[in-house]
Design a protein that fits this description.
The chain is mainly beta and about 350 residues long. The protein folds into two domains: about 80 residues, Sandwich (Immunoglobulin-like); about 230 residues, YVTN repeat-like/Quinoprotein amine dehydrogenase (Methylamine Dehydrogenase, Chain H), CATH 2.130.10.10. Helices cover about 5% and strands about 50% of the residues. The strands form six sheets. It has an eight-stranded mixed beta sheet with strand order 22-23-24-25-9-28-27-26, with no helix packed on it. It has a five-stranded mixed beta sheet with strand order 2-8-7-4-5, with no helix packed on it. The protein is elongated.
Length: about 350
C-alpha cells in the first residue's frame, strides 16, 4: 500500500513540475553548460553548449541563442564577434510555457598588442592653465576643449606658438570634456550634465545641443568622417549618428587578457581609434570594429619633460595631422605640446 502511495505521489509531483506555476525560477531547473567550463574565449574558438536539465523535467523543445539571435545546434563560432561580454541563451518549452536561461561569456583580443615607443621631434608652448580634455586638428588649426567647472572653454589655437586665436566660455555649471570637428561643425561633450554642444566651426557660435542615451558621462570623442565615436569612462566606445548624435551601438575595448576601462580622449588615426587611458602614460590603438587593442604606445617619461607645477595632471590630448606615425600630444595643465614619432619596439 505504501509503495502505491509513493508511486502516486511521484507522479503527481512530476505533473505539478510540468505546470506553469511550479517553475518560478528557470535557473533552479536548467543550466547552460559550456565544454571545459570556460568563461573567456578568443575569436579563433567555437563554444560547445549543452542544456543541463537538472530535475529531468519533460521538455518539449529548446532553442539556443547568442546575443538574442537564434542559432542552429549547440556550437557557436566566435570568428566575427566583437570583444567583450556576450550572452548565450536557451528558450525551454515546458508544457507550453517558455522559460529563458542565460549565461555570459567574454571574448578577448586574439593577439597580444604590439608595443610602441616614441621620439620627441619638436615641442611647442601650451597654456599651463588649460585642463586639456579634447584636442583635434582641422587643417593647421588646433581646436582644444578645456575642463573644470567655471573654467571650461572651447578654443582655436596656433599650435606652433601656443597662441589662443579664439575662445568662448562654456558656462560655470558645465565641466567640458572632449571635442571633434566634422564638416563645418564642432561637437563638444560635457562630463556629468548628460548633454553636449554643437558649434559653427568658423565662428564658434553655438548652434545646437544633444543629449546622451545609455552612456551617462562624456569623456572622449573623435570621428572618421562618417561616424562619431564617444567614450564614457568605461571600457565602451559608442558609435553616434552624425546627424542626431544618438547612440547606435558600442564596442568594448579588450586586450588579449582583460578589458581596458577609463577610456578617455580619442583620436582617429589611419583607420584606428587611438585612446588615452586615464591616469596611464599610454595610448591604446583600438580596432574600431571589434574593440581589440592591437597596440599600445608607451609614453612613459613624457610628463617629466613639462613644468612640474602644483596643477600638473595626467596625459590627455591626442591630435593627428595626417603625417605618418606622427602624433601631437599634451596633458592637463601641461606647458608643452609635443610632436612625437611613434616607433615600434
Amino acid at each position: 500500500m505504501r509503495f502505491y502511495k509513493a508511486v502516486i505521489f511521484m507522479f503527481l509531483a512530476l505533473v505539478f513540475i510540468g505546470c506553469e506555476e511550479e517553475i518560478k525560477n528557470a535557473n533552479d531547473y536548467f543550466a547552460i553548460e559550456i565544454e571545459g567550463e570556460k568563461k573567456v574565449f578568443t575569436p579563433s574558438e567555437s563554444i560547445a553548449v549543452t542544456l543541463n536539465n537538472k530535475k529531468n523535467v519533460e521538455v518539449r523543445s529548446t532553442n539556443f541563442m547568442f546575443d538574442g539571435t537564434e542559432i542552429v545546434g549547440g556550437s557557436i563560432p566566435l570568428a566575427q564577434q566583437k570583444m567583450g561580454t556576450h550572452t548565450i541563451g536557451v528558450r525551454v518549452d515546458v508544457a507550453g510555457k517558455e522559460y529563458l536561461v542565460e549565461k555570459d561569456i567574454i571574448v578577448v583580443a586574439p593577439n597580444k598588442p604590439e608595443i610602441y615607443g616614441y621620439t620627441v621631434l619638436e615641442t611647442y608652448p601650451h597654456d599651463p592653465k588649460a585642463y586639456t580634455q579634447g584636442l583635434e586638428f582641422n587643417n593647421d588649426t588646433l581646436y582644444e576643449s578645456t575642463g573644470q567647472y567655471k573654467r571650461s572653454t572651447l578654443r582655436k589655437t596656433n599650435y606652433a606658438t601656443g597662441e589662443v586665436l579664439q575662445q568662448i566660455e562654456i558656462g560655470d555649471q558645465y565641466f567640458a570634456e572632449a571635442l571633434t570637428v566634422m564638416d563645418d561643425k564642432i561637437f563638444q561633450l560635457t562630463w556629468r550634465s548628460g548633454n553636449g554642444f554643437i558649434y559653427n566651426k568658423n565662428t564658434l557660435k553655438k548652434t545646437g545641443t544633444f543629449v546622451y542615451g545609455k552612456s551617462k558621462q562624456g569623456w572622449g570623442m573623435c570621428n572618421d568622417g562618417e561616424n562619431i565615436y564617444k567614450s564614457d569612462g568605461t571600457e565602451k566606445i559608442w558609435y553616434l549618428d552624425k546627424e542626431t548624435l544618438a547612440e547606435q551601438k558600442f564596442i568594448e575595448v579588450y586586450t588579449n587578457k582583460s578589458k581596458i576601462d577609463t577610456i578617455n580622449e580619442l583620436e582617429w588615426v589611419d583607420n584606428k581609434i587611438y585612446a588615452n587611458i586615464y591616469r596611464k602614460d599610454a595610448i591604446a590603438i583600438v580596432n574600431p570594429v571589434s574593440g581589440a587593442v592591437e597596440g599600445v604606445v608607451n609614453l612613459k617619461g613624457l610628463k617629466q619633460q613639462v613644468g612640474q607645477t602644483a596643477e600638473l595632471d595626467v596625459l590627455n590630448g591626442i591630435a593627428y595631422k595626417g603625417e605618418p606615425n606622427i602624433l601631437y600630444v599634451t596633458g592637463k595643465n601641461w606647458d608643452k605640446l609635443f610632436k612625437i614619432e611613434v616607433l615600434k619596439k
